[in-house]
Amino acid sequence: MSSPAVPRTEIAPASIVERLVSFACLAPSVHNTQPWRWRYADGVLTLRADLRRRLPAEDPRGRDLTLSCGAALHHLQFAARALGWETDVVRLPRGADESVLAQVRVLRAGRSPVVPQDLALLRTRCTDRRRFTAWPVPAYRLDDLCRLAAPWGVAAAAIADDGARFRLELLANQALSELGLDPGRQAEQDRWIGRSGADGIPAALLPDDPDPLLARSRFRPGLLEDTRMVLHGGDRVIALGGPYDDVAGWLRTGEAMSALWLEATREGLSVVPMSQPIEVESTRREIGRSVLRGAFEPHLLLRVGWQAIGRSELPRTPRRPLADVLDS
Ligand SMILES: Cc1cc2nc3c(=O)[nH]c(=O)nc-3n(C[C@H](O)[C@H](O)[C@H](O)COP(=O)(O)O)c2cc1C
Question: N or C: fewer beta carbons within 10 Å in the chain?
Fold first, then answer.
């Protein structure tokens, strides 16, 4: 008598893993540094932080770098599911050196259908820094997005009440002024922004004037002192974070950010990270204390809003070739 067929677990061939890593590398990263390295050996895909791509002045502790790698890790899991594969992820494996952020096994038990819409989302998600429309994003949509963080063990809060939002605006402007005075940070911006090649942010994707209101004025800039606000009317803000400001938390927050951003993209919402208020330690602490009322340590802020209908499609931010980031 023949025994019932037991589904055999299949380990992904290298060709599938290469495809998944290509999708993972579409993830957002700070200054488009793409600070990740992948290695596939003995059925295990290892994700390492590429510490040479850390921003020493703007990101001395590697928070933004780890968030970026977390986003790539989520993109990988999302792509695997969309292609009918399962992933088994071990984060910060014990005994590995500190650059190892995760080890992933890509497996298939049985056949799952491919979800082309999800693969399309990975390709269409982008950072569109053009001014959002004034249409408010309904509170329930923000709450739904925030709820997506919990399965990753990440706290999320929409900064909804007027007082908290006002304090956040002030702190965000304070952080920008501080960063503007730091020559090290400015040099770092110059290095990564407006360059051509496979990384960094092309000038075509950055607003031509930091304050479009001023650009539209009928007068040339005068001497009247005014505050250039970084948040505008239609912008909504979501804070992501956790109980500690540490690598384990940043990695998970990166995954949650990616989950939330892809879902927002599906709904036609635009997401733009706002990391400077978190990069300045004094404003980061104050956001935790007075905006989030001590609920959690903030790791990243996201601006969320609607882009105007019919806007032109943006050119894609470049990516490094797969051979530069994947060893096998
Ligand atoms: C941790 C992190 C911080 C970021 N901070 C900012 C920011 O402060 N301002 C901004 O305009 N974009 C920010 N970005 C977006 C990146 O610049 C963007 O993801 C990158 O240039 C790649 O472009 P893409 O998202 O269109 O693929 C950040 C992204 C990450 C992952």
Answer: N
**Segment 112-121, tens digit of pLDDT:** 889 999 999 9
Could you tell me if 142 and 238 are in contact, meaning their C-beta atoms sit under 8 angstroms apart?
Answer: yes
State in Å: Cα 132 to ligand 1 middle: 16
Most informative mutation of 275, 280, 302, 313 for ligand 1 (most atoms within 8 A of CB): 275
Q: How far is the CA of 174 from the centre of ligand 1 (A)?
A: 20
* Distance separating alpha carbons of residues 142 and 237, to the nearest angstrom: 9
Give 192-239 pLDDT, tens digit per residue: 988 889 999 998 888 775 554 444 445 455 566 554 566 777 789 999
Shortest-distance Cα residue to atom 12 of ligand 1:
273
What CATH code would you report for 139-202+227-305? 3.40.109.10
Atom of ligand 1 nearest to the CA of 257: 31
Q: For residue 246, which of 205, 299, 322, 307 has the smallest C-alpha distance? A: 299
CATH 3.40.109.10 segments of the chain: 11-125, 139-202+227-305
Q: Which atom of ligand 1 is nearest to the CA of 274?
A: 8
